[in-house]
Amino acid sequence: MRTLESPGRIESIVSAAPHSLSTKRLLIAILLVAVALRLAWRIHLGNEDFWANGYSFFYELGVSLASGNGFVLGDSRAMRVPLYPVFLALMTLAGKYYLWVVVPQSLMGAGTVWCTYAVARDLFGERSGLLAATVTALYPYYVVHDTALQETGMFTFLTTAAMLLLLRAMRGGGWKLWCFAGAVLAMAVLTRQTLLPFALCALAWIACFSEGDRARKWKRAAIVAAPVVIMVGGWVARNYAVVGAPVITSELGFQLWNGNNSKTFSRYPAESIDRSADEALASLSQQHRVQLDALGGNEVAENDWFLRKAAAYIRDNPVAALHGAARKLWATFSWRFSPRRESLAEWILLLSYGPVCALGVYGMWATRERWRELGLIYLLFLTFAAVTGLFFGHTSHRSYLDLWWVVCGAGMASDRLIDTLRGNGHTVSGGSIYESC
User: Fold this and answer.
1) Alpha-carbon gap, residue 44 to 46, rounded angstroms
2) Which residue among 96, 126, 146, 175 is least enclosed by CB atoms within 10 Å?
3) Following CA atoms 152, 153, 158, 161 in sequence, which dihedral angle do they give, to the nearest 10 degrees?
4) Is 424 exposed, middle or buried (0-12, 13-18, 19+ CB in 10 A)?
5) Taking the CB of residue 327, how many other CB atoms lie within 10 A of it?
């Protein structure tokens, strides 16, 4: 096993490459199918649908950056984290044509498929890797949303890549691999800030449960933390200079209040949380309206005001807040869309996500004795559940977790198939990354 002090080249990632020529060809075919399906679906919907049914504010931020006006959207200068708008800013240089965005996002979707293969192969073997890659390539939600005008596809790719790097580093990678893992993790946080709690917990996990003595564990955690602190800290420092507060986003307070007020469930989860927010804003008392108007549109001051309102609601209504957290988790992990969709889409979700979820949960339970190496996957789910319960969640917010159920489910399915063919009793042996060191 390579120690922390050994050379540890980043090229060690490529050890996830398939061994046999036939497997390589099959994996390439799966990746090509993944790209083709994503492109075909988006081309079928066309240019107008892309702009009409996406999150246009992301593109507006990209245009603002590309035109030299900075990270500005209306009166806000720190509403969202920057990476996806920066990507869109680069795409605008070629003109406003949807395929300039769709093509690279479809390639990111294929990147997610490859990372899923690599993780599943490391943990459960090559058959599991190919099965997981196939399911991810064909998974309807990813086929439809990987090329939408939203950060979900990029976030899923970066999160999966960061997890792959962390898991591979845990098997004895050198400091370069640990550092690279930290950099990709920071990029994922800068794509969707809700991953920050996982990043912090992952650092603690590495410091406690990675291989070696205490000094090596803490050194690894520090190496991973360095790019996270530099990159995410740089964004926070930028916000302090621009808006006057060291925040990762200036809408944290407002979003916390969205998920914790008397009108939160007036329209949500059947409709967007934004519709509930509209009702909540409309129901504000005259005194509260005066207080908000007095802030003069200062985004930091407004963020603090909503933060206090949310904290007061949770403090004064603890039972309602706990009940609300359970409802948010059910809405997010449910086999129905949130917000609700047409009947066909609901059935497609049920028939795809339902089996993936059920088999994935079973796979996680069956492999619980491997908690040390799978702990980062568990943390990914636990931190997401904590953030969702405290704030809120829709189906799109949870979708990046689905492939981890695919990974665990593929491990179970291929292991059971092999045992059936051999006539053996079922065991979840897998390909432990620690055993392979």
Assistant:
1) 5
2) 96
3) 130
4) exposed
5) 16
What is the per-residue pLDDT across 378-392, written as a single tens digit (0 to 9) for each? 999 999 999 999 999
User: Which tokens sit at 301?
Assistant: 């001051």
Angle at 112 between CA 110 and CA 113, to 5 degrees: 65
d(CA 196, CA 10): 24
Contacts of 360 (CB under 8 A, 6+ apart): 404, 405, 406, 407, 408, 409
Cα–Cα distance for residue pair 33/40, rounded to 1 Å: 10
Count of alpha carbons within 13 angstroms of residue 39, beta-carbon side: 14
Please check whether residue 58 is in contact with residue 191, taking contact to mean a CB–CB distance below 8 angstroms: no
- Cβ atoms < 10 Å from Cβ of 160: 25
Distance between CA atoms of residues 397 and 406, nearest Å: 17
The model's pTM is: 0.91
What is d(CA 99, CA 225) in angstroms, rounded to the nearest whole number? Answer: 36
Distances 259 to 263, 316, 336 between C-alpha atoms, Å: 9, 15, 20
Contact status, residue 300 vs residue 250, Cβ threshold 8 Å? yes
- CA atoms of 225 and 107, how far apart (whole Å): 28
Structure token pair of residue 333: 């992990």
What residues contact 175, with CB distance under 8 A and at least 6 apart?
Answer: 4, 5, 8, 223
The alpha carbon of residue 67 and the mean position of all alpha carbons in its chain are separated, in whole angstroms, by 29
Residue 1 has what DSSP assignment?
A: -
**Which residue shows structure tokens 């922390």?**
4
Kindly report, residue by residue over 391-406, the tens digit of the pLDDT.
999 999 999 999 999 9
**Which two structure tokens, joined as six digits, stand for 282?**
């409309």
B/e letters for 236-246, b = 16+ CB within 10 Å, e = fewer, are beebeeebebe
Q: For residue range 218-252, what is the model confidence (pLDDT) as tens digits?
A: 999 999 999 999 999 999 999 999 999 999 999 99
Q: Quickly count: other Cβ atoms within 10 Å of residue 4's Cβ.
A: 21
CB-CB contact of 255 with 193 (8 Å): no
Q: What gap in Å lies between CA 200 and CA 182, rounded to an integer?
A: 11
- The residue with tokens 């192969």 is 121
Residues 6+ apart with CB under 8 A from 65: 71, 85, 86, 89
The per-residue pLDDT for 433 is 36
Q: Is the pLDDT assigned to residue 9 strictly greater than 70?
A: no
